[in-house]
Design brief:
377 residues; alpha/beta; Rossmann fold; single chain; globular; Rna Polymerase Sigma Factor, Chain: A; 10 strands; 3-stranded parallel sheet; 17 helices
Length: 377
């Protein structure tokens, strides 16, 4: 909202969507005056309609976000619904040939094999909003795709990158949500703590930039100033730097290929201090191994990893499992799944449902989360 206001009269919001947060959606609608809004939760929709129904159209139900994309004429769809729930609206936007400012990495992790070919056919342009993939997207403009030697995905390391494995496995929810750099929602923050977010970003990078998994390397960069880098065949490494502020990549996705003055705080290069880079410990952060495995296998593997992780994170937030169980449960689902190499949408959704059921079956009804760890170890 801040970015749109700063860009001025050249940009207008014509549609907004939410799951159940109708009060915030109503405030945004009153401020931005869109043509329509979408809300998934029907009880929330009734209260929303009572408040703003005379000002704009209200679409309701589990398909409301996708219906909004189908029905409202626009130039850009900012796809930022967290998790696999964002897939239908993203697919709808790609089908319509829109520019998709993609903040929902799970859409590509789950359905990259459908989204990328569909974008080629429809003329849709996928412009990444994730700070890391936005940085890669910008750095790639310094050379041609065949000149790329390696892509470096930077990771803050989250709150636990210096913790020993035993302490990390027993981390509390509050500790997991205490991110040292970024202010994010609980799901993404926990994914950062396990580094599952980086595992998903490996898969996303392979789809977005058409590179094999062995050309993507993750490096820990606690200062979060270099958002990612591209190494070219002549040894040149092009890095995109900036303050850790999501308004910058959001705006670039909206204004691409132009650049405009932004409301984010400029980087004080001289005052930035020392910047550290190191390789992650794949034993403590086993999620990264899963990311490389999924990127190599393709097919339904991404849907399984994402769904199992989403389910495990919810169980952790509910206090039913320990922090260390999250990655183990995702690994169990991936190991037990028989990958379909060229899946249809129905097969992807089926794999998603199977993985959620697998995690729930391992943990369902157990009062002792230690027992679930034994089952998936």
């Amino acid at each position: 909202m801040q970015v749109i206001r700063e860009l001025g009269a050249d940009y207008r919001v014509v549609g907004l969507s939410a799951g159940s947060s109708w009060t915030l959606l109503a405030e945004q609608a009153e401020m931005l005056e869109p043509d329509a809004v979408a809300v998934a939760d029907e009880s929330a929709a009734r209260r929303l309609t009572d408040r703003i129904g005379r000002r704009c159209r209200v679409l309701v139900g589990p398909t409301a976000a996708a219906d909004l994309v189908e029905q409202i004429d626009c130039d850009v769809v900012l796809a930022a619904i967290v998790g696999a729930a964002g897939l239908p609206a993203t697919l709808a936007a790609v089908q319509k040939g829109r520019r998709v400012a993609l903040a929902n990495k799970e859409a590509l992790v789950v359905a990259g094999s459908l989204l990328v070919p569909l974008a080629r056919r429809s003329g849709a342009r996928l412009v990444p909003v994730d700070s890391e993939h936005s940085a890669i997207f910008q750095a790639l403009q310094a050379g041609r795709s065949e000149e790329v030697r390696r892509i470096y995905l930077t990771a803050s390391g989250g709150p636990f990158y210096t913790w020993p494995a035993a302490r990390m496995a027993a981390a509390t929810l509050e500790e997991s949500l205490d991110h040292p750099t970024w202010d994010m929602g609980p799901k993404i923050t926990i994914d950062s703590a396990t580094m599952m977010n980086k595992a998903l970003e490996i898969v996303e990078a392979c789809w977005l930039f058409d590179v094999p998994a062995d050309k993507v390397e993750v490096v820990i960069h606690p200062e979060s100033i270099v958002h990612s880098m591209v190494e070219f065949c002549d040894g040149s490494v092009i890095a995109q730097m900036g303050t850790p502020d999501m308004r910058t990549p959001i705006q670039y996705a909206l204004t691409y290929p132009r650049r405009r003055p932004c409301c984010s705080r400029p980087l004080d290069v001289a005052g930035a201090g020392t910047m550290r880079f190191e390789r992650p410990d794949l034993e403590r952060f086993g999620a990264l191994r899963l990311g490389y495995e999924v990127a190599s296998k393709g097919g339904t593997a991404g849907a399984v990893l994402n769904a199992a992780n989403e389910s495990a994170v919810e169980l952790f937030r509910a206090g039913r499992i320990r922090f260390g169980d999250i990655t183990a449960l995702a690994a169990s689902a991936l190991s037990a799944h028989e990958v379909v190499s060229e899946p249809s949408l129905e097969q992807l959704l089926s794999a998603d449902a199977w993985a959620r059921g697998h995690v729930e079956r391992l943990c369902g009804g157990r009062a002792d989360p230690v027992q679930s760890r034994r089952d998936v170890s």
